[in-house]
């Protein structure tokens, strides 16, 4: 009796100590937030879904036609809109001119008939394939996984993660011809076990058609089953080398609920009120744990992610486990043994290699960590990957491979470092409106490994079953008294954790060693922690695991530094709008779309809000016309962005979700430049687009620190006929331009319009911002162009060191801000390596650490010499 009373006390006190609520995190009501809604740019509604359906899986073909999934529509809709589907927006085609004036905006669906179907601006939704359609010679159903003996998973009783086949999401098309009009469509289906379907598509004179006969559920192929299959396949990406990347959105991965940390549970000597759903993965009938906890503890709680344990037992049947828990239409608590799925095999990025072969081969990129990954974004350098995780109190992640990923002969050899974001600016924690606050982020390294290493760590848990849950954690023999044994095991796991997997103590020991030795200095047996328990590990080292429903992330396929990475936060509440942590903003239930400018090494450091949704309390007329709960985002080749809603109702006069086209504002960009001392470089001043032409304007460019660099010259672009001489200030800090395009050389719709060039001379080592100020800027209609300023950075290199062959000041050959050419001869060679080695302790090196910190650890050390040598 005393123990039970103590448990009840722990349940209330531990949860109360960190502000946990029913949903995991305390969060204020969504009141009238300034700047909600806000759109920086132009926005038009292109399509609306049928009632009950999300807009998911957008894809744009090379010819400009658009495709998306009709996910879980209401069964009350008229056919065919009562069944999940994938279809093309027939009649609409993007011209890729960067402007939204190419189509008339779709009116909101007002009638019941309009709300029951998919509507498209200037066209129709042409359905290609629907859930349950016979495929693969009629032997299978589209989107339906099967057991090894061919039994449809839909035939089993028990908890599910959604109805089988009703949640199509990701769509990416891999062409097999030069025109991009024939090929294979790869579609995810959010279910457990997961489903990735390959459907042949071709376009003829009458539009796109699907070959159902030749379509196949990849999940039912042996290569997939050997990996444990996939689970909850959500959105994804098409890699630069044209392989589909499927995200396993395993919501059941949280080890702790909400903002709680493993250290909180250890300090409280109990996980009651704090522990997440992952602890109950191998519990018999795992989704029943919430009710069981209610019977055990007076102050029960909802372990975050428990609902997503639905379908875990279906995963076991898919893998071939004997369904001993099936009793007619009832799912019992008889424990499943051999063949039970390993929880660490899910929550990964799955690459479909050899996508056009007879049997595509899946590869799980285990080294990219585990989360409820909604989507990745593989950057054009083929090394950098950004990863967004759905749900509450989640992280933003980045992976950087040591070599381009397709260069590895064996994908299991892919090796690199996993990072997590930490928000650093005080404004983000000052309860300000999201529309007014950028998020400044830094990246914390979690660890370095290869796919093969992480796979070997995961394999250590392959034999864990539901039998182990009972035999590890219960004193009573489950074969004698299953009910009592299950209650004992639930109690023990709730308080002390599940000892069948990585323990709380191991995570805390990893975090302690991380703080003392850095990510690469932890004991060998602990290196697995950040890759298998990514979210829990990241929390312990101070990462910002506060993001809410990060459901979209994308950039241009050929993005380069200066372009943008877009991130969709479907709802800005819970961990982003509470009273703790690094992110504490005013709540906006309508969500926010951020963008981040790509830096020289495909890094990002600032997220700026560009689309802010409405408050839940806003009046109907506002929410009817504003984007709400943006989920997937897709950047078109002209820089516009498709925004897909997943909103439910949200107080609109219509219930339908919408597909919006966002046209970013014109930006005025000035180049970053690296120069040597007493040498000069050039920075161009460029407008990203001029939809309505350019009449003229007056603009100034300023260097903030003239002890680093000075402006020594300037010139106009040849297209500008009427100009005044550029005026440079006496101290070399500012130059002013005044111009007019009297000959209309710059036409409406022009992109990347260079206006002028600024000559900059290095004065002293260091960095200075180079910023623009628009006094006037007008288009051909006489309307002011509201150009969004994009500053640059000038890096002036250090003075000469040693007596190198070139004899000049060091230079930065690749423009990355590091001065690899130490001897000043204009190239990186072995002499530069020896020069750094010989003078590593000289003031000319140690006082210019930023210039020579080639391993990016914030100091000069001998590893910088190794890194420089490897760059040759």
UniProtKB/TrEMBL annotation:
Transmembrane segments: none annotated. PROSITE patterns: EF_HAND_1, TAT. It comes from the Archaea. SUPFAM superfamilies: Type I dockerin domain (SSF63446). Residues 789-824 are annotated as: Disordered. One of its GO terms (biological process) is polysaccharide catabolic process. This is DUF839 domain-containing protein. It comes from Natrinema altunense. The lineage of its organism: Archaea, Methanobacteriati, Methanobacteriota, Stenosarchaea group, Halobacteria.
């Amino acid at each position: 009796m005393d123990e039970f009373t103590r448990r009840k006390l722990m349940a209330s006190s531990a949860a109360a100590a960190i502000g946990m609520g029913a949903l995991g995190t305390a969060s204020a009501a969504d009141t009238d937030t300034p700047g909600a809604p806000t759109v920086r740019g132009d926005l038009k509604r292109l399509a609306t879904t049928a009632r009950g359906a999300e807009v998911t899986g957008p894809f744009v073909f090379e010819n400009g036609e658009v495709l998306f999934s009709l996910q879980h529509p209401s069964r009350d809709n008229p056919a065919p809109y009562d069944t999940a589907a994938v279809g093309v927006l027939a009649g609409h085609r993007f011209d890729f001119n960067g402007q939204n004036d190419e189509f008339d905006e779709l009116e909101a669906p007002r009638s019941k008939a309009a709300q029951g179907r998919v509507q498209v601006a200037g066209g129709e939704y042409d359905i290609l394939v629907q859930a349950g359609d016979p495929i693969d010679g009629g032997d299978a159903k589209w989107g339906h996984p099967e057991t090894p003996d061919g039994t449809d998973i839909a035939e089993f009783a028990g908890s599910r993660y959604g109805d089988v086949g009703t949640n199509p999401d990701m769509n990416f098309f891999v062409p097999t011809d030069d025109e991009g009009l024939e090929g294979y469509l790869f579609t995810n289906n959010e279910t457990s076990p997961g489903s990735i379907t390959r459907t042949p598509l071709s376009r003829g004179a009458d539009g796109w058609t699907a070959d159902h006969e030749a379509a196949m559920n990849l999940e039912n192929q042996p290569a997939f089953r050997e990996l444990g299959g996939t689970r909850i396949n959500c959105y994804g990406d098409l890699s630069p080398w044209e392989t589909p990347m499927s995200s396993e959105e395993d919501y059941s991965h949280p080890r702790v609920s909400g903002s709680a940390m493993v250290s909180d549970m250890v300090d409280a000597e109990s996980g009651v009120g704090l522990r997440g759903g992952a602890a109950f993965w191998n519990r018999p009938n795992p989704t029943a744990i919430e009710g069981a906890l209610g019977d055990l503890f007076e102050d029960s709680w909802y372990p975050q992610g428990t609902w997503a344990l639905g379908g875990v037992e279906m995963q076991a049947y898919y893998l071939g486990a004997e369904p001993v828990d099936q009793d007619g239409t009832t799912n019992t608590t008889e424990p499943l043994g051999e063949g039970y799925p390993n929880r660490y095999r899910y929550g990964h990025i799955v690459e479909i290699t050899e996508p056009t072969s007879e049997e595509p081969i899946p590869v799980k990129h285990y080294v990219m960590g585990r989360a409820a990954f909604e989507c990745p974004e593989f950057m054009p350098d083929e090394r950098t990957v950004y990863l967004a995780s759905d749900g509450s109190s989640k992280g933003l992640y980045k992976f950087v491979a040591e070599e381009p990923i397709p260069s590895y002969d064996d994908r299991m050899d892919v090796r690199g470092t996993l990072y997590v974001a930490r928000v650093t600016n005080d404004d983000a924690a000052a309860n300000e409106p999201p529309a007014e606050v950028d998020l400044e982020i830094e990246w914390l390294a979690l660890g370095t490994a290869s796919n093969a290493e992480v796979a070997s760590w995961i394999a250590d848990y392959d034999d864990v079953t539901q039998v182990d849950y009972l035999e590890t954690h219960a004193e009573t023999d489950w074969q004698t008294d299953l009910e009592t044994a299950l209650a004992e095991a639930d109690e023990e796991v709730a308080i002390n954790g599940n000892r069948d997997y990585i323990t709380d103590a191991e995570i805390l020991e990893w975090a302690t060693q991380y703080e003392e030795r850095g990510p690469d200095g932890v004991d060998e047996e602990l290196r697995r922690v950040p890759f298998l328990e990514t979210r829990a590990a990241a929390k312990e080292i101070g990462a910002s695991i506060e993001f809410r429903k990060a459901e979209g992330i994308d950039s241009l396929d050929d993005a380069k530094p200066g372009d943008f990475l877009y991130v969709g936060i479907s709802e800005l509440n819970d961990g982003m709008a509470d009273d703790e942590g690094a992110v504490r903003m005013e709540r906006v239930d309508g969500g926010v779309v951020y963008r981040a400018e790509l830096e020289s090494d495909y890094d990002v450091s600032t997220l700026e809000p560009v689309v802010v949704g409405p408050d839940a309390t806003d009046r109907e007329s506002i929410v009817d016309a504003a984007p709400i709960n943006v989920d997937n985002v897709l950047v078109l080749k002209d820089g516009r962005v498709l925004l897909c809603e997943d909103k439910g109702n949200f107080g609109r006069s219509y219930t339908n979700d919408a597909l919006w086209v966002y046209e970013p504002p014109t930006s005025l960009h000035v180049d970053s430049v690296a120069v040597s001392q007493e040498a000069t470089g050039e920075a161009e001043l460029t407008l990203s687009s001029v939809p309505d032409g350019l009449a003229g304007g007056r603009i100034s460019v300023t260097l903030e620190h003239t002890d680093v660099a000075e402006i020594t010259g300037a010139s106009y672009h040849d297209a500008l006929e009427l100009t005044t001489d550029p005026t440079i200030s006496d101290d070399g800090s500012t130059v002013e331009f005044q111009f007019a395009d009297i000959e209309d050389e710059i036409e409406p719709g022009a992109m990347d319009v260079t206006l002028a060039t600024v000559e900059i001379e290095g004065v002293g080592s260091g960095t200075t911002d180079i910023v623009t100020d628009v006094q006037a800027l007008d288009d051909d209609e006489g309307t002011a162009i509201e150009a969004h300023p994009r500053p640059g950075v000038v890096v002036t290199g250090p003075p000469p060191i040693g007596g190198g062959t070139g004899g000049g000041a060091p230079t930065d050959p690749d423009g990355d801000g590091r001065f690899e050419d130490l001897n000043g001869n204009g190239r990186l060679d072995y002499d530069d390596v020896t020069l750094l080695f010989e003078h590593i302790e000289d003031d000319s090196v140690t006082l210019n650490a930023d210039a020579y910190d080639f391993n990016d650890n914030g100091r000069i050390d001998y590893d910088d010499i190794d890194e420089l040598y490897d760059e040759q």
